[in-house]
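Posting this for the archive.
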Amino acid sequence: MKKIGEIIKTHRQRANLTVHQLASKIRVGTATIEKYEASLKTPDVQTLLRLSTVLDIPASEFSQVNMESVQNQLELDEELLSLIEKIGIPKTKEILHFELKQRNFVK
């Protein structure tokens, strides 16, 4: 199974984007993209959604994000984590993507 960093790098290169261009499009620093690609840092769910939009790939490409990393990144309380476990990560991403669209964070 590929790591998220490998997926990001592969699709960034396929999209002919530099690290700087991708960072600019998803509103993070260049060093952050470099850490993602080196698997030194894991993007949070909102960043994964922005990445999937900019790289024109389904969010399910990042499906190996496990519940532990989601909880650590977002510091979720137990009730919210329980809800995510019930509805699943794909549905959670769909809901978050909808919310980001409503707030004009993604197209």
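The first helix runs from residue 4 to 14. The CA atoms of residues 85 and 106 lie 25 Å apart.
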